[in-house]
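Chain A, query sequence.
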Amino acid sequence: MRRLRQTWLTIDTDDVRHVPANQGHPSRSKPDSTLPTLSEQFKSGMKGFASWMDSHEYPVTLFVIADQCESEEFVHLMTEICTAYGERIGIGCHGLHHRSWSAWPEDRERFARDLSESISVLEQHFPNHFKRWFRAPAGYIASWMIPILIEHSIEVDSSINPSWLVNSKYGKGESWKTVLSTVQKSRLIERPWLTRLSLPTCGPAQHIMGLRWNAKAAWKKLGTPLSTDEMKLISDENVELNTIYWHILDHARNGGNWVPPIRGL
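Chain A, predicted structure.
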C-alpha cells in the first residue's frame, strides 16, 4: 500500500484589517480606518487555537505579518503561545504588511526593503522560533520576487497555489506554473499548497460554497502531520510533503470551537 505523504500544518495570522478587501490590493481593497489594530475576532481565534493545540502534540508553523508586532498585546499573545508550546511553534514571514505584491507593478526595491524589515522585526520578537520561511500575502507571488527571497536567505517558500482557478494572482503573463518553474531553477525550496481535482483546498477554500466540499474531502484524507523531530524535512528538497494552511481567524468560528477538518485531529 502506498504511504501517504506527511503533512505540514501552517496557519496565517492575518487579522480582519489585513484581508485584501481591506488592505493591500490595488482594486479589491476598500480600507476601513475604523478597524482595530487587534480585533476581538483575532483574540477569540487565538484562544480557540490554544484549545486546539492542547488536543494534540503536533507542531504548527505560524506565518506572521510583521506589522502586527506594533501591537504590544499581539506580541504578548504570541509570546504566550510560544512559551506554552515551545518547539511545537515555528514562525515564518508573511510580509511586513499584507500587500498583494503580484497584483501591483513590479517593485523590487520596495519588496526587498519590506522583506528585510519584516525579517528583522520577527527575529527581534521571536528569536527562538523564527524560521527563514516565507509566504506571500494572499498568495500573490511573481517570478521577480524569487531572487529577492534568495538574497535575504529565505530557505523555503510556501506561496504557490497550484490551481488554474487562481492563475490571475501571479501577475501579467504569469501563472502558478511559471512561478514554480522559476523557483525550481533556484536553490529555494517550494512547498505548494494542497489542491484536489485542480481546485484550492486551503485558506478561504475551506469555507467558500462550491469549493468547501472538495477542500474538506481533501483534508480528511491527509497523511500524518510532521512531528517536532521531523520539521527539518521541510527544508529537504528530496522529501515530498502536503502543505495546508488556514487562518487564526478561523478558530473564532463556531463560537471559538472551529477546528481544521483533519483526520485524527
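The radius of gyration is 17 Å. The helical segments are 40-53, 72-85, 108-125, 146-151, 176-184, 212-219, 253-256.
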